[in-house]
Structure prediction request, 417 residues.
Amino acid sequence: MIEFRSRVEFEDYEVEEITGFEPDGQGDHLFLWIEKRGFSTSELIARLAQRLGARAADFGYAGRKDARAVTRQWISIDTKAGGVDEARIAALDLSGVRVLRVERHPRKLRRSQHRGNRFCLRLRDVCDEDLPLLETRVEAARRHGMPNPFGPQRYGYRGLSHELGRRLLAIDHEGYIRELVSPEQTPDTPEVAQLREAVLSGDRAAQKALVGLRGRLPRDLGVLARQLARRPSDWKSALRALPRGLLGIHLSALQSRVFDHVLAHRPGELGDVQRGDVLFLHEKGAAFLVPLTTTDAELAELQARADAFELSPSGPLPGRKLLGATGEPGRREADAFASLGVAPEDFRGLGLGLDQRGARRPLRVPVTDLQSSREGSDVVLRFALPRGSYATTLLEVLSLGVPAALSRLQSGPSEVR
Prediction:
């Protein structure tokens, strides 16, 4: 294991969004190129909305950026809805926020409109004895990329939010509400304990008494408390009252757990192409199946394209139209579903505005423009990653190596309980 310290200072972790387009220079939406430090994108929008007298819904962004970091990204705001203009932006004074550029554009910035992110990370106190191994792992990342897991940030408070997704798939309204208020999902406070006791006891009077608790609970639990006070023990209406975004996060966590299971149990190198694989085209974002009847020559041609990082084997994000693998890769995908007690068909006909078409995610991603330099006792890394992948994964790979990093996924809390 190579030991180092990271994120000691905000400046140790710099992120810059790669958008792939430029604002048109005209239109009803102001695009703000913003540098922030010390808080999340959601908190940035909340602060901007409060200061400008706008609604959070008037803002747009392509991707969420880390809180404990210095980050630069585009934020859009609808000038018609918010009554905001360039003069008000110029007068903006927010601690930890710098507006570096202001442009106009006809349309709101949407999620995932960026191509990726560029990083500059400082690894502090790297021993001289570890430098050769670190450089070997850096060179391997240049050539072969890195694994593409979702990792712990996807799985909530104690890494178990996929359990809520399982309850949604099972259309288990009461089970979902009970899981939502459990200690595994929610930090303990006196208010949460009162809500939990009212839910678990099924006492209608206790649930009606939750009416005064809403303002002292986290927002989503406050919604739940208000609905149970209105309609005690009506679990279906309680679930339907919750924000669709929250339900979507929990379903997404289950999809992610399926993917991470497949990734953790992939044999050999992540770029090795097998018959039955579904291959992901990095440039186009499309996927196609490798038939079991593929000849050796055809397989060798696909492998050459994988070696050039044109394509990679992929894992499933389950949904009603998922293109599934076959053969041995398909068996491993079936094992991932079985480990979680769900089946592909469970993702069909969900209702609740949670329709999931399904998608493929590459098992590895390229680490482009990767450079490392020694600065005193530190090592500074500069590189870029495609959207949806995480710089923390690269740090784990550099510290532990790929096999150990993947073994951590295998020990994750994916079992049915």
The chain is about 35% helix and 20% strand. The longest helix spans residues 244-264. Confidence is low (pLDDT under 50) at residues 413-417.
